[in-house]
Task: structure prediction
Amino acid sequence: MGCCNRRCGLIAGAVFGAVVAILGGVLIPLGNSVIEGTVKKEAVIEPGTTAYDNWVSTGANVYRQFWFFDVKNPQEVLQYGARPVVLEKGPYTYRTRHLPKENITFSSNQTVSFLLPNGAIFEPSMSVGPEEDKITSINLAVAGAYSLVPKVLHSVLETLIKTSNSSLFQYRTVKEMLWGYTDPMLKSQVGLFSPYNGTYDGYYTVFNGKEDISKVGLIDRWRGEKTLNFWDDPYCDMINGTDASSFAPFVDKKKPLYFFSSDICRSVSASFQQSLDLKGIEVYRFSLLPATLASPTVNPDNRCFCRDLKTTRNCTLAGVLDISSCQDGRPIYISMPHFLYGSPELQDSVFGLNPNEQDHFTFLDVEPTTGFTLRFAKRIQVNMMYGPSNVITVLKKVKDYTIFPIVWLNETAMLDDETADMFKKELISRVQMLEIIQQVLLGTGAAIFVLCLISYCVVRRRDNQSKLA
Result:
């Protein structure tokens, strides 16, 4: 009777272990379903969700750091056509994106529209000097007029340059170069980012993800249009992806992330590079590839971004993007800092450039479960072009067209420690706890089942041997 009870107890134990293991196994898809449902609910852009609170006003401080290319030999360039020698000077840092979105309008169950205010506040403690620091750089008015005025009118431009005592280079403060000054030749306000404070980026209309979470944050319209009108081509004029502040939940690192940047007037994609630990949170790093600004001979998709055969050397020049069509005609060329990934002739035309990926590439660190961008660095260089002229005195010694680097910027942000702790507490810790429970139940149940089964076999064997004896 005792042997029977012992065997029955072991069988019951094995059954119990199997049930516990099965429960742990069942919790895996059930737990994943709970996590997925919670994330999808909180990722929707509507009042009351985690995504909405972060979307309306950026929680992390966003900074723009500027490094200017200070020209050290302006007279040699003017008198002998020497190659410009530049020395990087910076950073001069401003806090941006500090204002919440305005005119937020939920137009349907699918979309929400808003305006994004522009604002910049100087941060002296994060800068190498005050805004009043002066640098020698290209004359924005002269270089701009050279690109815009036909050659037959260069005599008129020559008169304007001389009467206003202007030259190819000028000595201006950082503040003037960035945010504007009254130019003596044009008699109007000129500046790389003028006007900025008090202006808006948008109007944006994005999907809120309520009906389809895979579309959350995707831009449906910009300035009221579903496509751009800068490139005269359906492909290049497409608005793809989000604004890069977030993406759809459950990011697949095998697929590129698409986003639109109004700073460069086009959509781009970023590809997965590696997994990283950010304040105890696993993130996927996505970055722009060298092919982003490659010449059409290397990347045929860029054919429609090539607009000027003269300055792009018949579209064989890599590394620059002419965005004049979206800058009210201002002849601005965008590149990566120090012409990273650009053609050798770009870097050779100016002495003092030192491109390197570590400091000059653009990346996004995205938390894969929520799709939130927790750290990013958007690095862009602003350039202008000048070239030879038989009429304009300050350009007579210039030998070839030069795309001149003026300034490069690093717009960056990273979640702070408080937000990271909240993120880990509200999401990561819950996911980890559920995974631990699943593993404990599965492991304990399997161990009990195996142990009881082995013990049952041993007891049964002994009982059979006793009966034979």
